Amino acid sequence: MFDLLFNWPFLYPFLIKAVIAALLIGVLGLIIGKLCWHEPEDFE
Amino acid sequence: MNLPILIGTIAIELIIIVGVGWVLNLISKKKMDAAEFTTANRSMPAITVGATQALTCLGGGHIMGMVGAGWSYGVGTYWYALSSGFMLIIMLCFTGPWIRRFGFTTINQLFAKMFDHKTSVIMAGIAAGTVWGILTLELQGVGTVLGAITGWDIAFGCAVGGILSLLYVLFGGMKQVGWVNVINAIFMYVVAIIAIFMIGSNLPSGWEGVNNFFVSNSEDWKLSILANPNTWQTYIIGTILAQLFYCPIGPQAAQVSASAKNVDAIRKSVMIAVPINVVFGAIMLAFGMAAQSIPEYAAIGNPPLANFTMLLNSLPGWLVSCLFAAFIAAMLSTVAVQILALATIFLDDIVYKFYKKDATEKQKVISLRVAVTVFAVGGTALSTTLPAIDSAIVWLFAWLLPAFWVFVFGMFWKRSSRAAFWTLIITAIANMIWSFTSLPTLLHLDGNNNSVGMVVVSFVVGIILTATDKNAKPGMIKLYKTNKSAAISKEYAAELRAQGKL
What we know:
By secondary structure, chain A is mainly alpha-helical.
């Protein structure tokens, strides 16, 4: 399990893990954005 | 010289830049004014905000710096790109929406409102210096790419890069930059994905050979995202801190957020910006480590140059032209927004505020174009005298770190002008001491670690000075909730009143 998560040999394991990590960060951003800015715009 | 590749690379770049400028000019119904040039009249949708924030924070650091650091730190270098993704969350879910909501264009204008003019001027100076440094480093990157293709001196490549960066921004301003970035982002990924799969079949022992190289040299830790303790100490921690707290408060990021149609567009752009920005780092890292594993390229000694040489020798000409055009586009997009931010800081926060308060719209547009040209030429002239990008870029990021804490305290806690001013000054002095003495060695923090020192100094100084200031005003969010018109910029308030929204 440790190896699967943290060892990133080239090419496919590296690329797949790199893309998944980036997408997870993006989803985290969407969730945080939704939680922090749920009120309607003040002036729009 | 690879003349066909050079012509192909520059032609692709020109077609995208000039083509977008031409189309925008055709569909634009009104004459260009200063607001259109600097903030696209606050009309940018999520797609252009996301692509521009992603590409503004994706340049020499990803394309040259990660390749260089990858030779020393292996896959652990990917933390540079990952931290860039987390930074985009802070930028697009916190600093960016607030800057847009308050209606400011530069971070210095916000600081003038939050604190005072003295703090704003100091902030303008630090921001301008940082932006100037980054744009010269990016131009150095463009020069290196062109140098690899042609064998030119890097200085000549920098000059060509300077001209291309001018074209990127000179005619259409922020709107042009936004749409060029959308097209460039798509183009970059298409060619980079084709290249990464094609190059595997052209490596002597394929990608398996790259893995075996590190294992047989007892460097298998270079294939782990956890790297080794030394890498965390000398590279990863400092890089994460610099990335997280510099870009969200950077003037270029503020200006792109200020150009968004509304807060919602900024918030939604996070899912566009993060993958575009982060995954490209993985592709560059794979290229760089492949070059290191082949003795012929490793012998070149300069990692980015070795990487470009490997790509030139291993891929078909058409793909190399496209790939190098993509690299140049990524760096030019950063240069373009940095130049625009620098020109806006110089004119809005200094010239129009203190010297020429009655400038007409026409004068403002002409001045913006002149300032953009002067900064591009100056940046080009200096770009070849700077140190290697991977070490210099993180060092530069650290200069703006105190501004992040000043912003956080002023938003959520109390607005202390004294604390903001002295936090910026004391941290700048600390950064000089850190950079020019052996203090980091004494603290066992050699390497990319001035950001560690600056985070600690600015956080501690900011807290102490803010807590002890009895004249501090309530935080900006509290002010906004009690009296919106007092918190937003004068220009934005006037605009909203004219529309009957305030």
